[in-house]
Amino acid sequence: MRLKQNKTMQFTDTHTHLYMSDFGSDREEAVKRAVAAGVTKMILPDVNGSERENMFRLAEEFPDNTFPCIGLHPTEIPEDWQTEIDRMMLCRSRKGIVAVGETGMDFHWSKENVKEQENVFRIQLDLALEMDIPVIVHTRDATEYTLKILSDYKGRGLRGVFHAYGGSYETFTELQKLGDWYVGIGGTVTFKNASIAETVRKIPLDRILTETDSPWLSPVPYRGKRNESGYIPYIAEKIALQKGTDIGIVAETTCANAEKLFGI
């Protein structure tokens, strides 16, 4: 399906789960609203096998606007995780895959399966290298551990994005020593007293990607409601304010960053 696009300003949402059941009643309309708002490209991170076919169907319906990934989220690792990885691997030849992820380490909900999380993470990092595509990294309460793993891949050409970045500028500088890494900035940058808003002032714009993580983390003025890709302009506007520049510069630069990293 080809959609009419906003020609005045273009944006990219590098992390949106528009294929999930939260959008069961208005999935197509949500894509159309995003494109009408100028958000013409949306990357669809994978989380587990249960939603994967919905993701691929959405990407097939809107091939000019939505781009699928393959991955296994660290909070979605079952006891029989190898079977889930095998299911994911069967999809590696599917059309249009632009990244591996989202994958990573998450100690917020559980530390009981740290080794399993690490094994699954490393398998996906290796897959990204093999496929020569970027990786979308999720890390929550596990930044030091995640960086330690990534240090083993230094100099091997691994590239990607730390999704929903909420770390410090110091952590950002450490990440830059490990390779070609971007940070995804989402709705939390618009929250009152959010530390990431101050950190964004220091992070170079050519290392920033815009994202929503919809249906979660809606920006102000939609905080507390379901998020969607069409809200990217609110995030870009806040980034522009923090960096003392024009939203058009933010839109242009972050779109160029996404194009360079994901090839979209």
Helix and strand topology:
Blueprint: E1 11-13, H1 27-36, E2 39-44, H2 49-61, E3 66-68, H3 81-89, E4 100-106, H4 114-131, E5 135-140, H5 143-151, E6 159-162, H6 169-176, E7 180-185, H7 195-202, E8 208-210, H8 232-243, H9 247-262
What do these coordinates show?
- The chain is an alpha/beta fold and 264 residues long.
- The chain has one domain (11-262): Metal-dependent hydrolases (TIM Barrel), CATH 3.20.20.
- Helices cover 39% and strands 14% of the residues.
- The chain has 9 helices and 8 strands.
- The protein has helices at 27-36, 49-61, 81-89, 114-131, 143-151, 169-176, 195-202, 232-243, 247-262; strands at residues 11-13, 39-44, 66-68, 100-106, 135-140, 159-162, 180-185, 208-210.
- It has a 5-stranded parallel beta sheet with strand order 4-5-6-7-8, sandwiched between helices. It has a 3-stranded parallel beta sheet with strand order 1-2-3.
- Strand 4 (100-106), helix 4 and strand 5 (135-140) form a beta-alpha-beta unit.
- Helix 7 crosses helix 8.
- 45% of the residues are buried.
- The mean pLDDT is 96.
